Amino acid sequence: MLVLTAVFCLFASVGLMALQMHTDRVSNGKILFRVLLSGGFAIGYAGLAMARRVRYLPVLVIAQVLIEIGAARVAGGSPSLAGQPEALQRQLTLLASLAMTGIIVAYSVMIQFLGVEGKRYFQARTEIALASEIHSSLVPVCTARSAADSSHAAFCSLRARLTSERITRSTCLRAIRYFLCPSRLSDSSMF
Questions:
Q1: 86 and 177 belong to one structural domain
Q2: Quick check: pTM over 0.85?
Q3: Range of 55's domain?
Q4: CB 58, CB 123: distance < 8 Å
Q5: Whole-number Å distance between alpha carbons of 25 and 81
Q6: What would the pLDDT profile of 125-153 be if each residue is shown by its tens digit?
Q7: C-alpha 56: how far from its chain's center?
Q8: Do 134 and 74 have their domain in common?
Q9: Is 45 in the same domain as 128?
């Protein structure tokens, strides 16, 4: 929710900046419409992206373009403030102040969001690290070997025993058990 609020405020400010590009008189209703349109569609884009519903983005783009075209036709032409520097200055100051306020609010809300999520992240990270330490202190280290490596080592050991001394029946049984279940015996206890 905080992210969408930040997105709304930021893109509402972009809508206000777009109004500053023209010298036409802008009514309060047009300012409100532009804020709601820019911020609302930004929330739509962000919501679709966060929900991973990217396939619906073209529908939203088409809807925005059609609404923008319709709004331009309905609004028609407003009187220009080009010959009235004081009125133009007041309008630009109002639009710029609103845009700056939107950017500041968006930044503040985003910092709040990052603080909340950062705290959650580091709490989870600390719990995972603690669980890992507890696990490593309670559970012995298990080394996994491939069948080829363990078989090769056992055959080498068996060959060395054959050449150096007489092999007993128990040694042969241990070797067979090792091949069937190598995890039950360590290398040192094999023969």
A1: no
A2: no
A3: 2-138
A4: no
A5: 6
A6: 888 888 888 877 777 665 555 555 555 56
A7: 20
A8: yes
A9: yes
Q: How does residue 176 score in pLDDT terms, banded at 50, 70 and 90?
A: low
Non-local CB neighbours of 151 within 8 Å, separated by 6+ positions: 179
Backbone angles phi, psi at 24, to 5 degrees: -70, 150
Q: Average pLDDT of 66-81?
A: 81
In a domain, 191, yes or no: no
Give the separation between CA 67 and CA 190, rounded to whole angstroms: 79
- Report the alpha-carbon distance of residue 42 to residue 145 in Å, rounded: 54
Beta bridge partners of 24: 80
Distances (CA, A) of 145 to 105, 181, 190: 57, 12, 15
- Residues 29, 120, single domain; the answer is yes
CA dist 59 → 4, 35, 55, 71, 73 (Å): 20, 21, 8, 18, 21
Average pLDDT over residues 54-72: 90
> Which residue(s) pair with 80 in the sheet?
24
Tokens 């060959």 belong to 159
For residue 181, the 8-state DSSP code is: -
